[in-house]
Amino acid sequence: MLAVHGLGVSDGIAIGKAFVLRQEQLDVPEYNVLRGQVDAEVARFTGAVQAARAQLDSIRNHIPANAPPEAASFVQTHLLILDDRMICVAPIDTIRRKLHNAEWALKAQAERLVDMFERMDDPYLRNKKVDVQQVVDRILRNLLMLDHDHHTHVRAGEIVVANDLTPADTVILKHHRVRAFVTDLGGPISHTAILARSLGIPAIVSAHSVTRYVRHGEELIVDGKRGIVLVGSDARTLAEYRVRRKRILEERRALNRLRTSPSITSDGERIGLHANIELMSDVKAAVSARADGIGLYRTEFLFMNRPEPPSEEEQYRAYVKVARAFRNKPVTIRTLDLGADKQVDGGRAGNAQVAVNPALGLRAVRLCLNDTALFRPQLRAILRASAAGKVRMMIPMLSSQDELFQVLDLVDETKTELKRAREKFNPRIPIGGMIEVPAAAVSADLFAPYLDFFSIGTNDLIQYTLAIDRVDDAVNYLYDPLHPAVLRLIRLTIDAGRAARIPVAMCGEMAGDPRYTRLLLGLGLTEFSMHPARLLEIKQIVRASRASTLARAANRILKARSALAVHAAADALNDGKAA
Length: 579
Description:
CATH class of the largest domain: Alpha Beta
Number of domains: 4
Shape: globular
Mean pLDDT: 86
Radius of gyration: 25 Å
CATH topology of the largest domain: TIM Barrel
Number of strands: 16
Strand content: 5-15%
Structural class: alpha/beta
Distance between the termini: 38 Å
Low-confidence stretches: 340-356
CATH superfamily of the largest domain: Phosphoenolpyruvate-binding domains
Strand order of the largest sheet: 1-8-7-3-4-5-6-2
Helix content: 40-55%
């Protein structure tokens, strides 16, 4: 029996035959065309783009009615990228100016875009390079007249093993009723991961070289929770996993029954469960999961893949749609969180140089205060949208009071302008700060008197506290949400909020990870914001927990002298030995 380890991104157990999906590397030709051939080459390129659009339209139109909103969302994202001038127009300019063939022109443009995304610090934004690569790959296949339908031979009940999967692949394979996905590449926020969680399919990504070790037709066991693929298991192992699979299916049915149940601990404490969203299509998933509101609306996606920033009116329309969808529930709009390395796609004007370390450079609130021509239209749009619902504004990456005061002054100036223009807005719009820089956590008590709420951004807080790049394979083993220093900063922030009588939420990945729910409840966290697909599982843990008992356990964990001791205590907490 062979065991291949990867990153489990969607819980569940699948047993079935392997279907190894092998995709050949595209051999992109590079040559020059004659002046008289330019129009024909441009027509060939536009034809390939039109064919790609028709293919994606067809996939979108055939998404099953009972599929989760994320399925259509990812296909729609590819259609938006396809219509972007950086993809559908820029290569034409290259063909005409440099006389490059269509494939070469597209490949060169794609490399520039991917390089831009590679330099982004935010993992959600950096992951968008995958979208670009997959859209480009679709156009290239049309230009090279290669087959797109490599997955049509998959049979129901099989387990797909592939190097990687596009959103379209994932949706189509679900329609073919495959039991699980295993890929060489990918991460916890890859499309395969997000869609697999939404579709309820066990999935493992980053199982390096799994396509080399598994052959067509071999019987596999996929353990999506532990991130293990077992090849050629014996009868005893198969029987054990069948029992576990049955138990998991029963637990999932119980989860669905919680959809309309309140999120209250067993001793009566109300816990807010909110959703993180990026696109308007994500709102459907949040509404379906009965989220208590939007805890994080990432506005930077309005600025992506475009040469100029969106207008105030375009931003206003996007924000109002979300506010109206949630009516009387809070919608927390984070102001622009882009950095110095993202100026080429509508995130910044001018010819700023790329920062050597954009994670520590001119990004988020620093960039907005440095370029108020970019910031002011967004402030106006958010304030105007506040008349349509319970809109809140959240400032990312605060590190000093001076930054906060500058933002508050700009907000006051914007309110005055709107009053003069007789524009409707909520003059008392709540303004909160993201606590994601250690300096802000340590001095949270200094920020609290001037803010209406805190939201802890654990992704960056952990990265900055431990001085590691969470996506660097050489050091990401050090990325530890349970590091004593991280837990102490979280506790400091919660205590500062409690002392100032302002709510404290958490919107980082830690908030949606069931391994940390009990500990966070014990630390006093009362608002969690996460991907909608995680809400029911977190709700189940909340309803089975006793906050007062968890508080005593959390206090003991904070006194632990090592990370090893913290992990052991957290495991005991999850096993019910301390709560």
